[in-house]
Amino acid sequence: MTQTPTTAQKATLTVGDQTIELPVITGTENERGVDISSLRKETGLVTVDPGYVNTGSTLSSITFIDGEKGILRYRGYPIEQLAEHSNFVETSYLLIHGELPTSEQYERFRQRLRMHSMIHEDMKHFYDGFPSSAHPMAILSAMVCSLSTYYPEAMESEEEVDLLVCRLLSKVRTIAGYSYKKSVGQPFVYPNNSLSYCANFLYMMFGLPTESYEPDPEVEKALNLLLILHADHEQNCSTSTVRMVGSSQTNLFACISAGICALWGALHGGANQRVLEQLQYIDESGGDVEKFVAAVKDKTSDQRLMGFGHRVYRNHDPRAKIIKDACHRLLNHLGVTDSYLDIAMRLEEVALNDEYFVERKLYPNVDFYSGIMYRAMGIPTNMFTVMFALGRLPGWIAHWLEMRDDSQNRIHRPRQIYTGEQLRNYPT
Ligand code: CMC
């Protein structure tokens, strides 16, 4: 349930001979922020905060993170408990609706996801226009935006919102599966609606029209876990993008498509692909982990240890620990030995004992081990960020809905400090 933040405390700001009082907003977990919304009106000043390192862009009741303590909760529930007991469909419901579903609500939600799994037959032709080498993130974002041409309906009633949200959640999975099939030149496999959400995705990825395919329940479980761990992460780059684009009142599909593009970058969701490429590079160049770590510390190069570091977590990323354990379990189950896992574990050990990483509080993040799991499942490297997007979708939707229902919401329009030329005349 959303709680009203308190504003009992005040902060005092003095600029020259003017002093003003600003309210301090305190959230339910005692997170505090100075409300500067009246600053410009009262003083003519704006705040400057490159990278929004200290900016709380909104009040939100979806996800809580304490980066110092390594805590992550969706709607109050610890990520560790959701990872152990929930599945992706239930967690999606929780994020979007704010509460865990009753058995009836769960059945109805599941049923809707099943009913809306197909994409319009005409949309299949769009894939013909993409080169087979196209990155699946580019295809995903284009196809999701294209959905708005098929579903231009307004979202007025709760029923209309619910229907469109279910369509999006279900169809994105099909779009992702088809992107993979396109890249390997295989025929598309229609969804099999007798399967669960994750099993159906695996079926569309690895099934063939000519053969029967039964997803491995352990792989399905591992996929559920990975998607749950990625499902939301409060005001990260892609979610803020979804909110930013949505603040102009454009449609849901366009906002999610923009979020997918933001996620694609190497510093955000694209890191999982880059981690695997780094592991491959280390493996192929002799496996010298120390040499690689020395290279990423070298400030003359712009190379980073991908899958390490986080803007918010300064102690550990709780998702990384869960993924590391799950990675061992999955590889054991599949009977896979992967030299990349050995390299990753050596990298982690070397980095965690290195002053450079300790001083800067850099730890493995969610992307460090997830790629090794995807690889063991047979998912190709260039699809890793698509998997992240599938997982993050309910979070994006929840934030979009929260923003849309917020009566205080205004178009997002940051200010700047201008540093260019002063007025000059055009040469005649
Ligand atoms: N390898 C080497 N040095 C690093 C790394 C890294 N992975 N991450 C940060 N640093 C250094 C950085 O060079 C800087 O050093 P100095 O103070 O000497 O200039 C210091 O640590 C602080 O880094 P920053 O770039 O100011 O930190 P940030 O909060 O702006 O960036 C980050 C956070 C995640 C983008 C960054 O840690 C990074 O680039 N990590 C690698 C990419 C990655 O794994 N991204 C996935 C993040 S988790 C999934 C998601 O939600 O997106």
Brief synopsis:
Helices cover 52% and strands 7% of the residues. With 428 residues, it is mostly helical.
Name a few traits of the molecule.
single chain, 428 residues, mainly alpha, Citrate Synthase, domain 1, three-stranded antiparallel sheet, 52% helix, 7% strand, binds carboxymethyl coenzyme *A
Question: Topology, pairings included?
Answer:
Elements: E1 10-15, E2 18-26, E3 32-34, H1 39-43, E4 63-66, E5 71-74, E6 77-78, H2 79-85, H3 88-97, H4 103-115, H5 121-126, H6 136-150, H7 158-184, H8 197-206, H9 217-230, H10 237-246, H11 252-264, H12 271-284, H13 289-297, H14 318-334, H15 339-352, H16 355-359, H17 367-377, H18 384-404
Antiparallel strand pairs: 1-2, 2-3, 4-5, 5-6
Helix pairs in contact: 2-9, 3-18, 4-7, 6-7, 6-11, 7-8, 7-18, 9-14, 9-17, 9-18, 10-11, 10-18, 11-18, 12-15, 12-17, 14-17
The protein binds carboxymethyl coenzyme *A.
